[in-house]
Amino acid sequence: MIAYINGKLVIKEPTHVIIDVNGIGYHINISLYTYGAIPETENYKLYTYLHVKEDSHTLFGFHTTSERAMFLALISISGVGPTTGLMVQSSLNPAELQRAIMQEDVNTIKSVKGIGAKTAQRIILELKDKIGKAGIEIDPADLALKNNNTIREEALSALQTLGINKSAAERSVDFILKNTGTEITLEELIKRALKST
Description:
The chain is α+β, with helices and mostly antiparallel strands. The chain has helices spanning 32-37, 65-75, 82-91, 94-102, 106-110, 117-127, 148-161, 166-180, 186-196, and strands spanning 4-12, 16-21, 24-30, 43-52, 57-62. The chain has 3 domains: 4-62, CATH 2.40.50.140; 65-127, 5' to 3' exonuclease, C-terminal subdomain (DNA polymerase, domain 1), CATH 1.10.150; 148-196, Orthogonal Bundle (Helicase, Ruva Protein, domain 3), CATH 1.10.8. Strands 1-2-3-5-4 form a 5-stranded mixed beta barrel. Helix 7 packs across helix 9. The longest helix has 15 residues, at 166-180.
């Protein structure tokens, strides 16, 4: 397994980054939590997981080892693949996800796009005893505010990448921005839009 990648941060998008290591650009899928936690820096180290299928090898990246541990725990659950695992971590930050699991809050987990009641119950049942073990713990990150035009475009791009219809994404994002003004992070904007579309 590729444990981490350390190199020049070439592209940073809400759904992925490209890191250049000795002239090779690695495309790495990330969660919104990781996106918000990545500092504005030239070089960056991202903890990774390589998902291998017959027709593809996909890299997933995480700001912390504990976020990666939670991702691995999520995808070990029947019915939760890497894309769904990343969607969970994009919709709920580590503290929210852990709180929902520990408090057996099915509705919060079910609010994630693509997660039904049965899968939410499985996540709680299978992960409740793992919280605090296997390196899964809360890592707070400082999330910087961006101006509304940039934040709107990045949110729309991320939502469309996640499979949301463009017009539905625009309606949702514009409604949220109108009601919150500039006091919202990109991560929070996308999370709210995912819940309302």
